[in-house]
Amino acid sequence: MERSVIFDKLRSELSEIVEVPEEMIAEDSLLVDLDADSLDILQLTIALRNAFSIEVEDGEVKVLLTELAQFLPDEGLAGGELSDDELAEVRKTLRVGTIVSFVEDRVNAKS
Predict the structure, then answer these.
(1) DSSP, residue by residue, the chain
(2) For residue 103, what are the CA distances in angstroms to 16, 31, 51, 83, 84?
(3) CB of 88 within 8 A of CB of 32?
(4) 11 to each of 43, 44, 74, how far by Cα in Å?
(5) Fewer CB within 10 Å, N- or C-terminus of the chain?
């Protein structure tokens, strides 16, 4: 699946969840700048599962943030179990493009 298709769907879902116009959401947008909190990330996780048939196990937000950490440039946050402080740090640095990369990786792995 093309990255642009994933981004368009993600932007549409995120726009509804955080009540921000789609035009204001770019790949380099930080979720924290869009006022996305943990509940919003949970809703986004569920929407992504439904839209792209992505499997995320119990404790979805924690699992998703842990898995998303591997796509961040900060190598110190990648791999293994993350503490609550590290998960909070991931949430603060999470960009829309990071989620697009995550979904792209998951979708392509299924193909």
Answers:
(1) --HHHHHHHHHHHHHHHHT--GGG--TT-BTGGGT--HHHHHHHHHHHHHHH-----SSHHHHHHHHHGGGSS-GGGSSSPPPHHHHHHHHHH-BHHHHHHHHHHHHHHH-
(2) 18, 16, 10, 23, 23
(3) no
(4) 13, 10, 24
(5) C
> Tokens standing for 111?
């193909």
Amino acid at 73: P
List beta partners, residue 30.
95
31-80: pLDDT as tens digits: 999 999 878 888 888 898 889 988 766 565 676 777 777 776 665 555 56
- Token readout for 2 is 């093309």
